[in-house]
Amino acid sequence: MRPIALIAIAAIVVYVVTRPSDTAGDFRVSGSPGPLPASGILTDVSTADEFESILVGQSGTPVIVNVWASWCAPCRTETPLLERTAAEVDGDFVILGVASKDIAPSARAFMDEFDVTYPNVFDSSGDIRAWLGVRGFPSTYVFGPDGVLRTTIVGGLTEQRLAAVLADLGQ
Amino acid sequence: MIDVGLLGSIAIMVIVASVFVKPWPIGTATPTVLDIVTVPLLVGVLVGRLTSMAFDDPASLTNIRDVLVIRGGVEFWAGAAAGAALLVMQARRDDIRAEELLAAIAVPALLAWSAYEATCVIRDGCPGPIASVGLRPTGLLQPVFPVGLAVATVAIAGAALLRAAQRRGASSTTTVVVAIGLVATIRSVASIWLPHVGDHLTRQHRTSIAVGLLAWCALAVILVRARAGKQTRVA
User: Fold this and answer.
1) Rounded Cα distance, B120 and A80, in Å
2) Most buried in the list A126, B36, B47, B203, measured by CB within 10 Å?
3) pLDDT 10s digits, B155-185
4) CA distances (Å), origin A67, targets A34, B47, B146
């Protein structure tokens, strides 16, 4: 048992040391500001420029962009957390959902099922997904008040991780 | 998407439990590591996950893919109860005393739990309150106090205390109750510092406080009864 345990621990250590970082590097939004989509409904946004303008329009407020799809199981488990968070941080942060790689009726049904009240856009062309460099579903992108991408979280969010990010942004 | 960090944490937990728990003969039975570590852990995770889903999103209980998203939440005490219940069933099958089996795995279980908490480093960077000195999880500008590492350290100290108590002749029931009380207390205290959304107590915080109170009350009853029994024998 012990040699196997040592090999397993060594493999995990190697993974930890060599795994790719979640941080996306120097990525800053720019361009002309646009309005935040209406809350609780799915707004079609067909170009990355249009989406970037939404982020620019929120300058001064941290934005948490959550890329999801109705077929994605982890998205389903984290949506109630995001909805609760949106209610708690109203005004201090913006939570913006991006339904991507999906069909609009399914995405709308998903939002209805979870009573989603924060703004959501529908990435009908896939441009937003490409612009953000989405590597998996769900993915969460945290933009600081200066429009700089602070971090990318690929995979399901935990309340602790999200709360830690919010606390860090709020300082 | 496979959550490699979480899988790594669980693997390390199983390895630590397997290294410290020795299959031992109790009566005529010799349980295997599979019996007393792997299967109870898997059952515990499954029941904990289902319980969490029942609370948070009952509609998803019918979807097997949602059940597999362990990261979505596992109810700790429901899982622990399920794992313990399985061990009790195994003890009955093997005609050994359940409390003996549970007491024998109490210390390895505490060490395994501490290993899981310590591996927060590979799961999510050990979130905690912002501090002047600490770890800086990816994406955060300021260091945080790594609550998971502190929990792991205290759990190891708790395991050492429990082992010392066992060596000094603590009964099986006392050992099990103290182990539960220790875990519940550590989780209750840690929950004060673990980041959470909103100002309310989280469900894991509330349940840990309740389980801790029950465990320490049970210990008080056991000690009072033991003292009364001793006085009766002296008289």
Assistant:
1) 23
2) B36
3) 999 999 999 999 999 999 999 999 999 999 9
4) 19, 29, 28
List of residues 6+ apart from B140 with CB closer than 8 A: A151, A164, A165, A168, B125
Closest among B160, B34, B158, B166 to B100, alpha carbons compared: B166
Q: Do A77 and B60 touch (CB under 8 A)?
A: yes
Question: Three-state SS for A27?
Answer: coil
Rounded CA-CA distance B76/B73 in Å is: 9
Binding-site residues on chain B for chain A (CB distance < 8 A): 1, 3-4, 8, 11-12, 15, 18-19, 33, 53, 56-57, 59-60, 63, 65-66, 68-69, 71-73, 121-122, 124-125, 127-130, 137-142, 144, 194-198, 202
Distance CA(A64)–CA(A113), nearest Å, equals 21
CB contact under 8 A, A74 and B18: no
> Which range among A9-23, B11-25, B113-127, B176-190 has the greatest average pLDDT?
B176-190
Q: State the count of interchain CB pairs (< 8 A) between A and B.
A: 124
What are the tens digits of pLDDT across the range A17-74?
555 455 555 788 888 999 999 998 999 998 999 999 999 999 999 999 999 999 998 9
Please tell me the predicted confidence (pLDDT) of residue B16: 92
With beta carbons under 8 A apart, name residues in chain A contacting B65: 73
Q: At what angle do helices B98-118 and B76-93 cross, to 10 degrees?
A: 140
Chain B nearest C-alpha distance from A146 (Å): 14
- pLDDT above 90: residue B4: no
CB-CB under 8 Å, B65 with A156: no
In chain A, which residue's Cα lies nearest the Cα of B17? A5
- Dump strand ranges (E) for chain A: 42-44, 63-68, 94-100, 120-123, 139-143, 149-154
Q: What is the mean pLDDT of residues B89-112?
A: 91
**Are A150 and A143 spatial neighbours (Cβ–Cβ below 8 Å)?**
yes
User: Which amino acid does the sequence have at B8?
Assistant: G
- Mean per-residue pLDDT for B48-58? 92
Q: For A161, which residue in chain B has the nearest alpha carbon?
A: B127
- The distance of A103 to chain B (nearest Cα, Å) reads 20
pTM (global) more than 0.90: no
Selected residue with higher pLDDT from B203 and A17: B203
Distance from CA of B98 to the nearest CA of A (A): 26
